[in-house]
Amino acid sequence: MEIRKSSQPKVVTIFGTRPEAIKLFPVVRALSKRSSLQNISCVTAQHRQMLDQVLDITDIVPDYDLDLMRADQSLDELTGRVLAGIGQTLDEIGPQRVVVQGDTATAMCGALAAYYRKIPVSHVEAGLRSYNIYHPWPEEVNRKIIGTIADQHFAPTETSAAALRKENVPEDQISVTGNTVIDALLATVQKSQEKDFLDADLKALFERLSGKKIIGVTSHRRENFGDGLTNIAAALRELAGRDDVALIFPVHLNPNVRAIMNDALGGLSNVAMIEPLDYPNFVALLDACTFMLTDSGGVQEEAPALGKPVLVMRDTTERPEGVAAGTAKLVGTDKDLILKEAYELLDNERYYDAMAKAHNPFGDGQASERIADVIEQSLVS
Ligand code: UD1
Ligand code: UDP
């Protein structure tokens, strides 16, 4: 791509996976409105199809697409490929600032490649900590590496800002902005009200399952591969034995997840294992479900905003705000605990009502504009 020869500072936003694309499309949009800077986007395509699914619902056409995904990639090969690919791209562009989001291999390598070139780094969704380097793995360490390098830390909440202060990050480098996922969610809910995005297959599925309580499921975490996913699958199988419920499970494209879930749940009439949904359709599932069973980070932030209880299939969470608000509960990957809490939500109305309250500790939908303001000010002043 030909980058304009201009005196305006260049800001490169780097992302590669589904959640980064969802959480960064509002930031890229906000930056694109700032005429004082050149807004450049670079995707590693650490995820190919799931990234494209998000790009397709936005107006963003990446300036650089490194197309780096390989089937069943290991952390070593992924990290090596992404670091080298981003490094080469930064050399070509010569930006004044790099923006990364969250905790993926792409985000960590984006920050590291920038650091190797002494380019300052902005971290969106900074300060999330579980204080356990194996849960989530490898994300907890990725976040700490990025936090060490960044000089602009966009903390979604006061809790995450406090974690950064505890690590002696200077106060003038921290901005509490809200989480950009709420910007994405609110924009998507509003668009869905203006235009019907519901996919025909999902609509037919909702109609076929009407009268049943829908439990939305997602699961993909690397630290759960093996026993964790096997236990989750066994809990889902037992839950699906009830006639009054149906599980809708858009299955992550990771082959390690698909193999276990297909073995355990394939052919069960009460389980709809479907392909990953595009974001507006996933939001429709969030809206339609009775509650969510998930190990996802983003879903823990979105479901409370829509008043949907979330059972979090992790031992720890770096997003304690949902738990504190009473809309999320940690159930780990213990089959009995998952079932106990799921049955409470299904059978105990008071228990359900106590968790099903709309609560949004994660932001007001303006995070991306705040982030763009700080970035712009630092570059033009
Ligand atoms: C990655 C992130 C994780 C994030 C998750 C979001 C790392 C180390 N992990 O995990 O933090 O929560 O994304 O979903 O960065 N695949 C496809 N098509 C796709 C996407 C994935 O086929 O569109 C398959 C490929 O075989 C790929 C595998 O899934 O090799 C794993 O993808 P990868 O990005 O390495 O890890 P995730 O488990 O998705
Ligand atoms: N999501 C989606 N389609 C799906 C499943 C999830 O658009 O079929 C969205 C979800 O709303 C959330 C994000 O993807 O915003 C979460 O991504 P994922 O669970 O892959 O990663 P994590 O949040 O755990 O990093």
From TrEMBL:
Membrane-spanning segments: none
Name used for this protein in its record: UDP-N-acetylglucosamine 2-epimerase (non-hydrolyzing)
Domain of life: Bacteria
Keywords noted in UniProt: Isomerase
Family: Belongs to the UDP-N-acetylglucosamine 2-epimerase family.
Classification of source organism: Bacteria, Pseudomonadati, Pseudomonadota, Alphaproteobacteria, Sphingomonadales
EC supergroup of this enzyme: isomerase
InterPro entries in alphabetical order: UDP_GlcNAc_Epimerase_2_dom, WecB-like
PANTHER family in alphabetical order: UDP-N-ACETYLGLUCOSAMINE 2-EPIMERASE
Domain UDP-N-acetylglucosamine 2-epimerase: 30-376
Catalytic activity, EC: 5.1.3.14
Gene3D superfamilies found in the cross-reference section: Glycogen Phosphorylase B (3.40.50.2000)
Species of the source: Parasphingorhabdus cellanae
